[in-house]
Protein: ParA family protein
Organism: Cryptosporangium phraense
Amino acid sequence: MIVFATSDKGGTGRSVTVSNVAYRRALHGDDVCYLDFDFGSPTSGAIFHINEAARGIPKVHGARNGRGLHSYVQGEISDPVRLDVWRTTDRSEMRDNPTSGGRLVLLPGDQGGGELPRVAGDVKQVARLFRTLDEEFGLCLVDLSAGRSYATDLVLEAVRSPLLKGVESRWLVFHRWTKQHIIAASGLVFGENGILASAGRNPEPLVRFVRTAVVDPDSSQLSGLRPAQVAWLRRCNRELQELAGKHGLGHTMMLGEIPLEPMLQWREQLLLDDDVYARQVANLDTLEAFESLADRLFDRKCWEML
Ligand SMILES: Nc1ncnc2c1ncn2[C@@H]1O[C@H](COP(=O)(O)OP(=O)(O)OP(=O)(O)O)[C@@H](O)[C@H]1O
Ligand SMILES: [Mg+2]
């Protein structure tokens, strides 16, 4: 299955959340690959702590072409480089991956790569890649650039390609729990040039929303706040729920809700079980939210057409 992760705004928590979902599925034995299609800013290597690819994969010294997804999509190379996260991460606690775990592979962009121009053959190139990876991995997560970007246009075309006939795909749209983000995410999906309008209806794309960095007004984390502040947060939360419902982002369309996690606010990283249970530097709620999202991706009930 291919899952496209997108958002209208930048900085929504898309990459951090999707990386953690990839990690959790791999921990449970799935073979997972993560494709960095954020061409304007290919930094997913940093989240996996792969220092070598923290801003895309560098060229081999003296080579004419790069090795990453930029070069592949532009038709300059026949296969993009794949990094085995368990072996290439510089985070030592992750090196000894559980023996029951599945593969976890990152396809990074090119170091120094930026937004790309459309070129002849790019759609076919991408469709071919998705086809190959879908046959090899149980889950392919594609982290797209925000908004109606080159990457989004490209994959919207690629999914209609005959090469991808029969390949299951789903869309996750990330947004923060604020007025602007709710309106923006709704526009990206339901708007005039939104995903639904552009993808066509045959088959209709499956889309669900993920709320990120959400403050729970009833959380014990907020026990230091004054009663007036908590009351205000509760009122604001109700207003946002109403707004989300009106814009098509209500509960039935929501696949997951990730709490505000202090650890992630300061560092984009994978949240390990040891961070919660042994070191106690991260919250169990956050781990459970990633776990639940990872489960629901494959839960048919959550994706039934409404
Ligand atoms: N659940 C969370 N709690 C607190 N902070 C978070 C959470 N998720 C993400 N963040 C923080 O929000 C910021 C944006 O996250 P991230 O880079 O994943 O978003 P993005 O949508 O991929 O952004 P971009 O558009 O730049 O690619 C990061 O600094 C990250 O650490
Ligand atoms: Mg990102």
Remarks:
- The pocket of magnesium ion (ligand 2) is lined by residues 14-15, 38 (CB under 6 Å).
- The radius of gyration is 19 Å.
- The first helix runs from residue 14 to 27.
